[in-house]
Amino acid sequence: MSLNILLVEDDAVFAQAMAEELRGFDHGVTVAPDGRDALAAIDSQAFDAVILDRMLPKIDGISVLERLRSANITMPVIMLSALGRSVEKVEGLEAGADDYVVKPIAAVELNARLLALMRGRGWTGSAGDTIHAGDIVVSPTKFRAWRDGIALDLGKLEFKLLAEFVANADAVLTRAMLVERVWGYDFAPTTNIVDVYVRHLRVKLTAAGGDDPIRTVRGVGYMLRG
Amino acid sequence: MTRLRSLRALTLAFLIAFLIATLGTGFAIYTATQRTIERLVDRRILVVSDVAAGISGDRSPEELVRRINAATRERDTGDIGFLLLDATGRRLGGNIALPRRLPMGFSTVALKDQIAGLSAGRALVRDVGHGMTLVTIAETEPFDDYNAARVRIYLIGFGSILLVVIGGLLFFVITIGRRIGETRRTVDAIIDGDMSRRVPVDRSGGEFAHQAMAFNRMLDRISELMVGISNVSNDIAHDLRTPLARLRSQLALALRRAQTDGQRDDLETAIAMSDELLEMFAAMLRIAEIEGGDRRAAFATLDLAGLAEEIATMMQPVVADGDRTLTLKPSPVAEIVGDRQLLGQMLVNLIENALRHTPPGTRIEIGVATTGTTATLTVTDTGPGIPEDQRKLALRRFGRLDASRHDEGHGLGLPLIQAIVRLHRGTIALEDAAPGLRVVMALPKG
User: Fold this and answer.
1) How many CB atoms within 10 Å of residue B346?
2) Same domain, yes or no, for A33 and A89?
3) Interchain CB contact of B303 with A (< 8 Å)
4) Which structural domain range is residue A77 located in?
5) Final residue of a structural domain among B146, B162, B193
6) Are residues B241 and A183, on separate chains, in Cβ contact within 8 Å?
7) Cβ–Cβ gap A200/B317 under 8 Å
């Protein structure tokens, strides 16, 4: 997926490096150095997503976001901040951010989150629906999952992990994203908890035959083939 | 002597001292008046008996009886009792009778001497010649029911003084106790993280008001300093994270442009190092955030045993992956008020700590127990443990135990756990599980 991204960041060195890396993922990147320039850029051209630094000269990130949302501009916004406090995170999300990440962040992580956001917006199924990717079917309401018609015996966390993979099939999910979404923690466990659970899930998915549907993306995370 | 520290002990000591002093004063006044009265009465009966017996002495018994009878009839000596005895103790005259013989000279008589109309008095027995003795007796009660009146005077006088003193003391104890209580509640609230609390200042002024104002000024100053520190830590977070973010993205860019596998390996190592630094910052900021106490606003009732089970179940595969075992002791429901996220992180960190610092094959056990007002969470492992003299160091930031620092981790694991325990107003202790380490966290219920 190639996206047209607006990167709002006052630190020129960081902005240039991040822009170049994101262009490496085939995205078009426009850099705005402050809040006023960001609003002007959004006014004059259409972006698929905005990466918005929280601390900006002239108009700060939260204000930019609030102005966008009050003007009914609903494009995905990832808020970027040097501050990682929970209250600030809540503030950012309440102001209308779709995701909130703490600086510094690897370009692959940012890219994975961007793609997941775009994908998540495209998926319009209601809570009652089953979701599927390839031969895997997941029913979030019944807490049941099947591969190739055979029911899978999954633990609670394994089920949540599989559901997350299926909902984001063909998108890379980073370990940090999985910890946030599956485990629901706002801290990073230092152990390889994600890797251990993915390995267990793989064993269960391939127990009745069939190839491994989960691909390891080295240094980034995992992806379920759709 | 026990030291008098508490307000109550001081008050009690003062009251006892005051009672002793009051009783002493009462006793002194009693004996002094009694002695004065006796001295006056003694002087009087000496004079009267002189008059009755005649100063020269050597009078005949008949004349003496006549003189005594005359004296009893006279008005100013009508209240005096006389008794004239001969050498054998036979009564020759007088207006009283005595059941016992009194010694020569002055002596005290009382109700038990059965002298009509006399309850307390003094007697003078003297030789009046011809082997005769003259007994002269006078009352030492200046008026009827003198003793009862004296008791009343003491009771009313000293009693009212005592009441005033006890009342005053109570007032002081209550007033001082209330002031100290106000200060203590303020201090407690501040320890719990509510830096906006101040001691109420009495508008009428005085010592207490001055003390409260001085205390509040000190708190203002501490608040300013804390805001300063918090700003500094925010500034550090921002100012150091920004260049680190640049460094990391520059390294990532260099990795993308790297030509050889050797360069790629070097750059990946450099990125891992910068990530480690950032992790350390994240942990420091996390501790600062927890110590700020803001998260207490989101406290909710939760079952610590249920949470322990949830985390143990979640960590089970990770522990098994590391060739160690994790067991959960059967635990009763332990409802506490707290932050589920942080308590979960605390448990995860404790298990991760146990994994990091023990050899394969180690058994890790989690238990929750409740007693009265506390819920106790215990994480025990059968690893090498921490020597007693190093346990304090383990709770200190960056206080890693191995001098070489080759061990994994940034030395912020236990301090973070300690910060979470403190946020919940609990205590943490590192104990010897013989062999192994036992971490005991006592958290107040409700």
Assistant:
1) 27
2) yes
3) no
4) 4-122
5) B146
6) no
7) yes
B131: Cβ contacts below 8 Å, ≥ 6 apart = B86, B87
Q: What is the pTM of this model?
A: 0.64
On whether any CB of chain A is under 8 Å from the CB of B245, the answer is: yes
For residue B327, give the CATH number of its domain.
Answer: 3.30.565.10
Classify residue B272: in a domain, yes or no.
yes
Hey, are the CB atoms on A191 and B341 less than 8 Å from each other?
no
* Closest-CA residue to A160 (of A198, A134, A133, A111): A198
B330 shares a domain with B254: no
A196–chain B nearest CA distance, Å: 6
Count how many domains chain A has. 2
The boundaries of the domain holding residue B336 are 296-444
Q: What is the pLDDT of residues A62-109, one digit of tens each?
A: 999 999 999 888 889 999 887 767 777 888 888 889 999 888 788 888
Model confidence band, residue A58 (pLDDT cutoffs 50, 70, 90) = confident
Considering only the beta carbons, identify the residue of B244, B313, B317 that sits closest to A104.
B244
* Chain A residue at shortest CA distance from B244: A104
B337 touches chain A (CB under 8 A): no
Say whether both A85 and A193 belong to one domain.
Answer: no
Residues for chain A: how many in total?
A: 226
Q: Which of B292, B311, B341 is the last residue of a domain?
A: B292
**Out of A125-139, B176-190, B381-395, which region has the weakest mean confidence (pLDDT)?**
A125-139
Choose from B233, B246, B274 for mutation: most chain A CBs within 10 A: B246
Q: Is the pLDDT of residue B1 over 50?
A: no
- In angstroms, the CA B58 to CA B65 distance is 13
